[in-house]
Amino acid sequence: MLLLILTCAVWIDVSQHRIPNTLSLGGIVLGIALQTWTSGISGLVAGLSGMAVAGAIFLPFYLLHGMGAGDVKLMGAVGAFLGPHDALLATGLSLGAGGAIAFIILLVRGGLAPLARRYWATLKCFLVTRKLIHQPPARGEVAAMKFPYAAAIGIGTVTAMWWLSLLQGPLEMIFVSTG
Fold first, then answer.
1. CA atoms of 4 and 18, how far apart (whole Å)
2. Cα 36 from Cα 15, distance rounded (Å)
3. At residue 92, does pLDDT exceed 90?
4. Are 43 and 51 spatial neighbours (Cβ–Cβ below 8 Å)?
5. If 0-12 CB within 10 Å is exposed, 13-18 middle and 19+ buried, where does residue 33 land?
6. Domain membership flag for residue 52
7. Which of 48, 59, 85, 108 has the most CB within a 10 Å radius?
């Protein structure tokens, strides 16, 4: 179910530059419901806390205008499905995937040099004035462009799920008593 939600989110975000609330909020409800159905009260707590952890980590990026609210809600849906610990891994990998995608876009579209110049100017200003003054990218600069972050969330989440599936067998052998 989560993979279907992520696939739809990526498709819509790439084509329309938005993630519908029905998809992300529906994902949150479905994730919490499935967690509750399979594990009772502890599943409910896992779904709610996973949603809170993943959403809380992405929230500052939204508040700083680095991503849209749909990205935060989609990550909350991922957290609702995975629970807090696995959501933490998926969130970290999603942020890493987003950084890698942004770097590739800057590299391909020639945006690294203007970015480096802005940060160099910020550093020189700080060394002289001891004040950190952020210079936002100019309109039209590659660094000012947005990209469909659902792709990064999809890559990070699928990578986390793959990694966790690889660990499941060895961890069960270590922690499960064969009595």
1. 17
2. 34
3. yes
4. no
5. middle
6. yes
7. 48
